[in-house]
Design a protein that fits this description.
7-stranded mixed β-sheet, two-stranded antiparallel ribbon
Length: about 260
């Protein structure tokens, strides 16, 4: 659907539109009655009966519209703080089915808003993702690397320090579920306090995979495939910048 929406947004695209009832003369009455009873008045009915493109999941913490209105072509000149967040997968990177390692860079501007600068998420060994995280650290002139300790603990810091011993590392612990940790960050997006720096106004969005994961995170949990490691790294980065070092995820529901 994200690709389809990009195609629909192109000036040279011609779109035709037809509702199910526009073709009623060619459909059996029992079929029309059955699908109307099943889908009429529902969100799925808007898609299946009225031919609307609906890619937002009911109950999702993020929507496409939230990202679209908070997309900018460039970031502020000055940042008060910049971090790289890493969400390790806990695998050795040798399996084709292994989850990705989330690697996201973000900064807090002098305007008090967070700017997501890069997504370098990858699949690989601890040594390879540590090098990638350190590269991003230097590319965006970050202040530190924030990494989740749940998978690997001291190993996480060790592999980063092996890639560059001078890089400051802050380990954080996930004490609550993914959706609970994500809720206060999604609230910041809703308040237009987090921006995605796309680099240009072209039709290709470099943050599409991350945004896809965000739009599949609901209050009841993640409904996508595999693990949302891009989303997790994003949550760690924005939380570190905007919610303070004293923030505790068990307070998320009160925010």
């Amino acid at each position: 659907i994200p690709v389809l929406k990009e195609i629909l947004g192109l000036s040279q695209t011609i779109k035709t539109h037809g509702r199910t009832m526009d073709n009623a003369a060619n459909l059996a009455e029992p079929f029309i009655r059955q699908i109307t009873e099943r889908y009429a008045g529902t969100r799925l009915g808007r898609q299946e009966l009225d031919a609307e493109i609906l890619d937002d999941v009911p109950g999702a913490l993020w929507t496409r519209e939230m990202f679209d209105r908070n997309r900018v072509s460039r970031s502020p000149v000055d940042f008060s703080r910049i971090v790289v967040a890493v969400d390790p997968s806990g695998s050795d990177g040798q399996s084709e089915t292994a989850d990705d390692i989330g690697i996201v860079g973000a900064g807090k501007g002098d305007d008090g808003k967070a700017y997501v600068l890069a997504d370098r998420t990858m699949n690989g060994s601890p040594a390879s993702w540590a090098r990638r995280a350190v590269e991003l650290y230097h590319d965006i002139d970050a202040d530190c690397i924030v990494a989740e300790r749940n998978f690997g603990g001291a190993m996480v810091e060790h592999v980063i320090k092996t890639a560059d011993k001078d890089v400051p590392v802050k380990l954080v612990t996930a004490s609550r579920g993914k959706s609970v940790r994500a809720e206060p960050v999604a609230a910041l997006y809703e308040q237009d306090r987090v921006k995605h720096v796309s680099g240009h106004r072209g039709w290709q969005n470099k943050f599409s995979p991350m945004e896809d994961e965000c739009c599949q995170m609901t209050t009841d949990g993640y409904i996508g495939e595999k693990s949302p490691n891009r989303l997790d790294a994003l949550v760690w980065a924005v939380s570190e910048l905007m919610l303070g070092s004293g923030y505790r995820y068990d307070l998320a529901k009160s925010l």
